[in-house]
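stage 2 :: seqdesign
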């Protein structure tokens, strides 16, 4: 089942926030959570629901509920005194957003544009499974203003896909990538490695299959076995082996080497692109601490120093937005210490994003030791930036802890 929401302060029914210092000074994006999937993958603890779990609400009504929240959100920010900004990035995630008709996704995007306006050249992405789109739906998305497709490929190896409970035919991936390219869309492929039972050769096969599609962007995430998921229970019972940390490190190194040889550069620990123009601007906005409004059940938002998250079940969400009140379940106000910790935690993962001048005095004193241990790039540090080496990316959490202690 989906993971639990964080514990925090109750969210007020009117949704009003008190803007912190510099409110409105950073770019503004919108995340739309579409919580529907055809089947629940055994490793997933995201806020998603299959048809049998949607009691009390219809999937066909979701787009209207999202539009209702978008219009209400603009009123809340206006009444809170947060300056209006046009939207620089939009990301439809899930779940499987393309479980909705393409026309519904376009309707939600149009509401975002009508409400806030889209910046010229705004990046608009939707996630999709390879079996949830076709030529007609992709063309509809392109005509409606989408600029980018992010396909959940995960693996090209049938037994790995079966362990992950992925149901798509891996041979369909090249076809849907080509369909998106024909429409002039940027294409990203998402991969997962360190699946129980996956070998290094299996992972090499998936990397080579992904690169054969010539995507603009590749994300590669190490599988985390979450408690409460079907896979978590199988690992706990000994029915599946737990992921091996050493093998996962070998897989990461193989990915970085293979992608680099094919002309892709890492810009975040788990992300590679064919040039900076193909990096995910929406995801970079999270790592850089920009503002965003999260639409939909369980969606998280962060605006002007306040963070909140919506109720999780689509039926509870629908009841909230249709009543004209806040769909938020809880919120927190970020103090200066928390903002600093999160800045270092996130920015250190992004190449060239964290300046040594942003670190505290003790942390700056530790940078030389991190360079000596091969975790931070010395030439970048001379230029005043913290860039992780390959070894540093493998030990990114340890590097961050040292910069924060």
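stage 2 :: out
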């Amino acid at each position: 089942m989906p993971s639990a929401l964080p514990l925090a302060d109750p969210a007020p029914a009117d949704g009003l926030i008190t803007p912190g210092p510099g409110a409105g000074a950073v770019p503004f994006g919108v995340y739309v959570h579409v919580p529907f999937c055809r089947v629940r993958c055994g490793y997933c603890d995201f806020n998603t629901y299959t048809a049998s779990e949607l009691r009390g609400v219809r999937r066909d009504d979701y787009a209207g509920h999202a539009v209702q929240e978008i219009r209400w959100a603009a009123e809340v920010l206006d009444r809170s005194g947060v300056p209006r900004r046009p939207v620089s990035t939009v990301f439809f995630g899930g779940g499987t957003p393309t479980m909705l008709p393409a026309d519904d996704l376009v309707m939600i995007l149009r509401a975002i544009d009508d409400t806030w306006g889209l910046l010229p050249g705004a990046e608009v992405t939707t996630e999709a499974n390879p079996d949830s789109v076709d030529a007609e739906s992709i063309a509809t998305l392109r005509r409606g203003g989408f600029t980018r497709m992010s396909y959940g490929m995960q693996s090209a190896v049938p037994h790995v896909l079966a362990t992950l409970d992925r149901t798509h035919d891996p041979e369909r991936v090249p076809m849907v990538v080509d369909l998106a390219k024909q429409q002039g869309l940027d294409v990203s492929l998402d991969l997962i490695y360190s699946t129980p039972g996956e070998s290094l050769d299996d992972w090499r096969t998936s990397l080579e299959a992904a690169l054969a599609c010539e995507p603009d962007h590749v994300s590669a995430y190490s599988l985390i076995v979450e408690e409460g998921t079907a896979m978590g229970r199988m690992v706990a019972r000994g029915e599946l082996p737990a992921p091996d940390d050493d093998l996962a490190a070998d897989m990461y190194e193989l990915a970085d080497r293979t992608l680099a040889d094919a002309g892709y550069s890492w810009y975040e620990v788990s992300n590679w692109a064919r040039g900076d123009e193909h990096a995910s601007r929406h995801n970079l906005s999270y790592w850089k601490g920009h503002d965003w409004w999260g639409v939909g059940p369980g969606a998280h938002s962060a605006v002007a120093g306040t963070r909140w998250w919506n109720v999780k079940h689509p039926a509870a969400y629908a009841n909230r937005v249709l009543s004209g009140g806040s769909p938020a379940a809880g919120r927190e106000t970020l103090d200066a210490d928390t903002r600093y910790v999160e800045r270092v935690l996130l920015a250190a993962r992004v190449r060239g994003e964290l300046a040594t001048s942003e670190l505290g005095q003790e942390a700056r004193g530790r940078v030389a030791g991190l360079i000596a241990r091969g975790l931070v790039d010395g030439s970048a540090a001379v230029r005043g930036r913290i860039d992780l080496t390959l070894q540093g990316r493998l030990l990114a959490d340890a590097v961050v802890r040292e910069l924060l202690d």
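stage 3 :: structure notes
- The mean pLDDT is 95.
- The chain has 15 helices and 14 strands.
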